[in-house]
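input
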Amino acid sequence: HRQIKYRNNVIECDHGKLKRIIGATLGFKSMKTAYATIKGIEVMRALRKGQASAFYYGDPLGEMRLVSRVFEM
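output
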């Protein structure tokens, strides 16, 4: 059992980390920049956790392909 109430909820726990990162940027000017920034943060977090390994099958260029697919480059 976790001591802090919001950490019991997986979504709220993840939201807290994202909120901490976004708080340091002092908000967003537009919805477009907010969407792109949050998408980038989530992709980098998934890569760091190893959750995206199914997309690149051990190929070193796979991470690059995944990021380009997410951001449609």
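quick obs: Residues 5-71 form one domain.
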